[in-house]
Inverse folding.
């Protein structure tokens, strides 16, 4: 049982770090500290690891019998799978300025849901 909680804690911390990194890249782009190509390539490098970590975390909750935490994780995993299937999971270099607000909102929503998972896992 302790192994599950420790593993979940470190997975959640890794997810938070990845999402904050993506938000920082978008903020740097917004304030013109970085060019669109570098920002998009940095974000695209961590998108699939973020999806994988979220899936592993959800699977961990499912297999360990933590149904409530699984139900909190499942919608985000479903959302990630849909983005991947529709090939909308990567940031397009040519459209990044037009999609800046949408991408920031998407990541903020994910950050809020991961922090919510962390609160429920700790309590």
């Amino acid at each position: 049982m302790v192994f599950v909680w420790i593993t979940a804690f470190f997975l959640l911390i890794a997810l938070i770090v990845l999402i904050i990194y993506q938000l920082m890249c978008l903020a740097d782009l917004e304030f013109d500290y970085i060019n669109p190509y570098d920002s998009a390539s940095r974000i695209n490098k961590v998108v699939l690891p973020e999806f994988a970590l979220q899936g592993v975390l959800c699977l961990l909750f499912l297999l360990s019998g933590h149904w409530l935490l699984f139900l909190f994780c499942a919608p985000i995993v479903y959302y990630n799978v849909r983005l991947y299937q529709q090939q909308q999971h990567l940031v397009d270099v040519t459209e990044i300025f037009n999609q800046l607000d949408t991408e920031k909102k998407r990541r903020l929503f994910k950050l809020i849901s991961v922090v919510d998972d962390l609160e429920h896992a700790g309590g």
